[in-house]
Amino acid sequence: MPATEQVWRNPKTMHIVFALSSILLLAATLWMMVADFDDEWVVFQGQAAQLEADRIKTAETQIETSAYNKEQAELEAKANAAKAVVDGKQAEKDAAQAKVTTRDGEFALLMRKVRFNRAERDKRRADLDLSVRDNAPTAKQAALKSSFDEQQTFVDKLEGDLQRLEATFNEEKKAVAEITKSYDEAIAELKKHQSEISLLEKARQKIEPDDWTKWKLKMVKLPIIEAFGSPFRINQIWLPDLKINIGGMADVARFDRCTTCHVNIDRVESGNIPTYPHDAHG
Question: Greatest CA span in the chain, whole angstroms?
Fold first, then answer.
């Protein structure tokens, strides 16, 4: 049969049908992903996160009273004054720090030498013990004993040098610490004063960041993208001792997913008072 140009279906019509089918398939796939994302528990977890952020803000406000801010200013002034004193001793500090740096290198080198020679001593001791076990000739045992004693004496000397060097090293570190002592104490006091609010701020930044990461957090909450690290997830607790029968064939462990929606159900303050007593999903 000779070939012809005739086709069963119109190519143009087929192209249109295939294009529309592809578009519909893409739309259906996207709709499926969005519908899969649109779970009620996601809303509850979002509300819980916002409640937690609001609670932290309230706690920060309660801490940052006028008395707190006044003490903060006083501690900062104290730290700045101490820093000025330390800055005035910069040459002395640099000289002391240079000694510490040099001694640190010497200590590290000597420590490696001590470890190497300890290993060599242990090896010679093992050779001696094996010769005794195997009842080797007396001359050989004596030679091994002499070799071990020589290495032990050398190790004892190195360990003594190491102890003296460590003592010097510690004294030189104390000299540096003494120069910066007033500033270090002022900074420690300032950090202690700020510790509670710093912990609250860190917790809030994870939920409601102020920097560029807030855009990252918003992105990972979007449909499809949320599969790559959303903060919202199903909370599943495995209960191996609480069984459920499947079709009369087997008893399997239950899984409790209640806290997926009731996110803050176990959150309590001191005195066993619920953190969110008025939150229906908390």
Answer: 108
Residue the block writes with tokens 């019509």: 13
In angstroms, the CA 113 to CA 24 distance is 74
For strands 273-274 and 237-246, give the pairing: unpaired
Contact 177/92 with Cβ under 8 angstroms?
no
Tell me the three state secondary structure of residue 79: helix
Give the side-chain half-sphere CA count within 13 A for 125.
11
Structure tokens of 130? Answer: 């094996």
For residues 198 and 206, what is the distance between their CA atoms, to the nearest angstrom?
13
Q: Provide DSSP, 57-72.
A: HHHHHHHS-HHHHHHH
- E-state strands within 166-281: 237-246, 250-256, 268-269, 273-274
Do you know the residue count of the chain? 282
Distance CA 144, CA 129 (A): 9
**Spatial contact of 225 and 231, defined as CB atoms under 8 Å apart:** no
Yes or no: say if 216 and 120 are a contact pair by the CB < 8 Å rule.
no
For 242, phi and psi rounded to 5 degrees? Answer: -110, 100
Which pair of tokens denotes residue 120? 């060599």
Single-letter code of the amino acid located at 241: D
| Range of lowest pLDDT (22-31, 72-81, 114-123, 219-228) | 219-228
| pLDDT for residue 158 | 96
- pLDDT by residue (tens digit) across 159-179? 999 999 999 999 999 999 999
Tokens of 115: 């470890």
Kindly report the pTM of this predicted structure.
0.60
| DSSP symbols for 215-245 | HHHHHTTSTTGGGGT-S-----EEEEEEEEE
Taking Cα atoms as reference points, which of 252, 227, 249 lies closest to residue 239? 252
Among 99, 105, 102, 108, smallest CA distance to 179 is for 99
